[in-house]
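Annex B. Sample input.
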Amino acid sequence: MWGNFLMEEREVVLINRFDRVYDFLSNFYPSPIKIEGIEFPTVEHAFQAMKSLDITERQMIANEPTPGRAKRAGRKVALRDDWEKVKCWLMRECLRKKFSTPELKEKLLSTGNAYLVEGNEWHDQFWGSCYCPDCLRRPGLNMLGQLLMDIREEIRK
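Annex B, continued. Sample output.
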């Protein structure tokens, strides 16, 4: 199902897993960023913390030992009223900070013109595209992949 495909009569490379050589594309990848005075060890930590406007909840998420634990903690915070309006913008800002470091900037540029898809098995059809048999019938929005490709283009300019 996944692999290279043709678009406009040219071959397009597809990167559909953010692991192994492409693990740096994952929000779980160690890449410290600072937002509003709080240091977060990963984009996942930062993004989950931004679900709340409470500084104590944000700091608690920043202190979680793993991105998985930060994600679980983010499901328990008092969700900010404007979350649905700001979540994509906040993700973009977190990713911009992550890929502002020279090493990660170069890694992102090394993906060339590859189409980036956060392929997953956990039915995330908003940030990625699940490739389980049920979800394959309707591709996901792949917002994370879209944002990564946008940022890659910003870096090129």
